[in-house]
Amino acid sequence: IQSCQKCIFSNGGQYFATASGPNVQIYDSYTCEMISVMNGHRQDVSTIHWKAGDHSLCTVDSDGVSCIWNIVDGSMTSKNVVSIHAGYVAGAFTRDLSSGYVADDNCMIHQVDPTTMSSINVTDCHSLSARHMLLVTSCDLMFLGMGSSKRGSQIRAMKLDS
């Protein structure tokens, strides 16, 4: 696998997804055989999230375009644009894809509805940009890899509204 910019294992570990530019490939973890290739983004894919059950996944590119894919045949089941007015930086979603969070380059974190990618709630990160996001299983806590040129890098924990 060459030029891989992101690699995420499925929840069960039997598959892994890689992003190379705007394309996403699904592989069998045991044989490394490519199962499917997903094409539909115009910009580099920056977030890959597996849905519980490992039959579909959500990808978001640097323009904020989100796609939900069926991994068996590589078909796109939905495509939406994150409704934020700044560049998309990072994202994290619940296991069932019922809720998600995206960070923009204006240091804001948006809670979004993954089916429409419309913003539900916004949190100001006070001049720190979230570059990496991770939801814990209970979804009551999110870890953020934050950074700015003046403050350096930090890891922060953010309590989520239940």
SSE order, one letter for each helix or strand: EEEEEEEEEEEEEEE
Mind summarizing the main beta sheet? 4 strands, antiparallel
**Gyration radius, in Å:** 15 Å
Fraction in helix? under 10%
Number of helices: 0
Low-confidence stretches: none
Q: What fraction of the residues are assigned to beta strands by DSSP?
A: over 45%
Can you list the strand order of the major beta sheet? Answer: 1-2-3-4
How many β-strand runs?
15
- Kindly state the mean pLDDT as a whole number? 84
Terminal residue distance: 40 Å
Shape: globular
Which structural class should the secondary elements be placed in?
mainly beta
Task: Based on the model shown, name its key terms.
about 160 residues; mainly beta; four-stranded antiparallel β-sheet
How is this structure best described in words?
By secondary structure, this protein is mainly β. The model has no long low-confidence stretch (mean pLDDT 84). It has no helices and 15 strands. Strand 3 (23-28) and strand 4 form a beta hairpin. Strands 1-2-3-4 form a 4-stranded antiparallel β-sheet, with no helix packed on it.
Task: Briefly say what this structure is.
The chain has strands spanning 6-9, 15-20, 23-28, 34-39, 45-50, 56-61, 65-70, 76-81, 88-93, 100-104, 108-113, 118-124, 129-135, 141-148, 152-159. The protein is mainly beta.
Set down the secondary structure blueprint.
Elements: E1 6-9, E2 15-20, E3 23-28, E4 34-39, E5 45-50, E6 56-61, E7 65-70, E8 76-81, E9 88-93, E10 100-104, E11 108-113, E12 118-124, E13 129-135, E14 141-148, E15 152-159
Antiparallel strand pairs: 1-2, 2-3, 3-4, 5-6, 6-7, 7-8, 9-10, 10-11, 11-12, 13-14, 14-15
